[in-house]
Amino acid sequence: MTTKYMDAELVGKRMSSRVRKNTGWKGLFFASTLFGLVVLAVLLIRIFTQGIEYINIDFLMNHLSTDASRAGIMGAILGTAWLMVVVIPVTMVIGVGTAIYLELYAKKGKLQSFIATNISNLAGVPSIVYGLLGLTLFVRALEFGNVILAGGLTLALLVLPIVIVAAQEALRAVPGNLSEASYGMGATKWQTVRRIILPAALPGILTGAILALSRAIGETAPLTVLGIPALLIPFPEGIFDTFTALPMQIYYWTIDASLVAEYANLAAATIIVLLVLLFLLNSIAILIRNKFQQRY
Amino acid sequence: MSTVMTKAINLKLVRNENERSEPEVQKEVVYDTKGLNLWYGETHALKNINMDIKEKEVTAIIGPSGCGKSTYLKTLNRMVELVPIVKTSGQITYKGKNILDKSFRVEDLRTQVGMVFQKANPFPKSIYENIAYGPKIHGIKNKKILDEIVENSLRGAFIWDELKDRLNDNAYGLSGGQQQRLCIARCLAVEPNVILMDEPTSALDPKSTLRIEELVQELKKDYAIVIVTHNMQQAARISDKTAFFLNGEIIEYDKTDHIFNNPADERTGDYISGRFG
């Protein structure tokens, strides 16, 4: 028998302290998770108890009013919807197009990785900076004014990096042997992209796009920079109309709660509407992912 | 045309064949590789390859991992160009034209030269759509014609009887062996002249392997088949000619029974008898 290095007695003595430590760490990780959940729960309960009783058909359908009991958020809901009408096509076309170029067409090299890295960096730029960009470019230089088109394009720029990165990852996840099979039969690159790679990457692309939209819907800072009001303006009917949006409505009501206490409740009610909207969008994302998901 | 003349032309076509060739079964040379060199960046992966491949024959390529046999196979349909750092010199003539010339469109080449891969790679589509994919990308839209192509291709790969009642099922529901035969059928649907097979049975069980080997024997009646394999018995069983690759060079290329029973080079003998590789 060779020399024994494991002293059974010593190992046994240390064992209980090792197991205790193990339990301790597990507890710490659980506590971290719990912290987030508790804070979120407190927030939700607070908002719901304050705002839920103010949500009714009149509140959802009415024009804005300085009289808290008559104020409605239809204008903000329409404004947010119109914003999405601009954001969705712009981000999908430009975002997915960029991702396809970077992943499938661009030569892999320094320039390509430089661009890819900077797109990731852009995802981290504070949203208020995008607001300044939108103000300079769309509102002033192109003289759109603070209309839906300017707001939508600003938000589209803001979430574009998210869509690009998500789409790139989805395209990268398509197994190479599928495109090989297609090329092997004499398909051109575009045929392969269109018929094999894009369908396989679609769930990932759509999930990323909808998550990006959720982000755009809730953004407030860039809109404040653009000078989006929450005033008594007519319902927007097209992308060249002035507008307000749900997060702006929340923002102004919260600020003005010091003048009219009722506004705080209206803000809470609007937050509920916004949360429900976000929840719906995320559910759609999950449904789409499950419906189109393919196994390789 | 007089018989003498025909014979003269045929003799010219097989000029690279050595004296052992039987003049009565002269077969046309499909691929003629001359002085092919290939580099992956700085790595010299193929060194001065000279090799001709004939129609209606199975040509096996054997050799240890990393010897360049798959690289050579992928050069035959220029699939190797999917790796951007590849450089080549020399020439490969396919039916008289140099395919390494940039003016030779890869899409044309790959339409005439089908490929079956190591791991079965059906598309995540129905069995029908997998087969119809090739004809569709080449512009066939008529449903009736597509139906016929699907049936003929599946029959050609001897898998029609197994699959005819489940054409709309997803191809991913098939077994590994069925998937690989589906991929062969998919390749037949484009009506190629040559089929390149890159270790097509390495991921399959013995029974499925046998079925693929039988299929190869049938297919060689109509196609030139080039098969890369790690399985020596497989090469001996199914091929007419065998090339032994080592470190990017062809050590020996001859009739299969010659290579296996009476190899000219010591290294070929060592490899075949399992002394290395």
UniProtKB/TrEMBL annotation, chain A:
Transmembrane region(s): 73-102, 114-138, 144-167, 196-217, 266-288
Subcellular location: Cell membrane
Keyword Kinase: no
Residues in coiled coil: none
Membrane topology: Multi-pass membrane protein
Cross-referenced InterPro entries: MetI-like, MetI-like_sf, Phosphate_PstA
Protein name in the entry: Phosphate transport system permease protein PstA
NCBIfam families xrefs: 3a0107s02c
Family recorded in the similarity comment: Belongs to the binding-protein-dependent transport system permease family. CysTW subfamily.
Gene3D superfamilies registered for this protein in UniProt: MetI-like
Pfam family, one: BPD_transp_1
Family matches, as PROSITE patterns: ABC_TM1
Main location class: membrane
Organism per entry: Oceanobacillus neutriphilus
CDD domains, A to Z: TM_PBP2
Domain ABC transmembrane type-1: 77-285
Keywords linked to the UniProt accession: Cell membrane, Membrane, Transmembrane, Transmembrane helix, Transport
From TrEMBL, chain B:
Domain ABC transporter: 25-272
Example of a GO MF term: ATP binding
Organism name: Oceanobacillus neutriphilus
Coiled coil region boundaries: none
ATP-binding in keyword set: yes
A UniProt-annotated Pfam family: ABC_tran
Name recorded for this polypeptide: Phosphate import ATP-binding protein PstB
Protein's UniProt keywords contain ATP-binding: yes
Gene3D superfamilies found in the cross-reference section: P-loop containing nucleotide triphosphate hydrolases (3.40.50.300)
SUPFAM superfamilies hit by this protein: P-loop containing nucleoside triphosphate hydrolases
InterPro entries linked to this entry: AAA+_ATPase, ABC_transporter-like_ATP-bd, ABC_transporter-like_CS, P-loop_NTPase, PstB-like
Taxonomic lineage: Bacteria, Bacillati, Bacillota, Bacilli, Bacillales
Chain's gene name: pstB
PROSITE patterns: ABC_TRANSPORTER_1 (PS00211), ABC_TRANSPORTER_2 (PS50893)
Keywords recorded for this protein, A-Z: ATP-binding, Nucleotide-binding, Transport
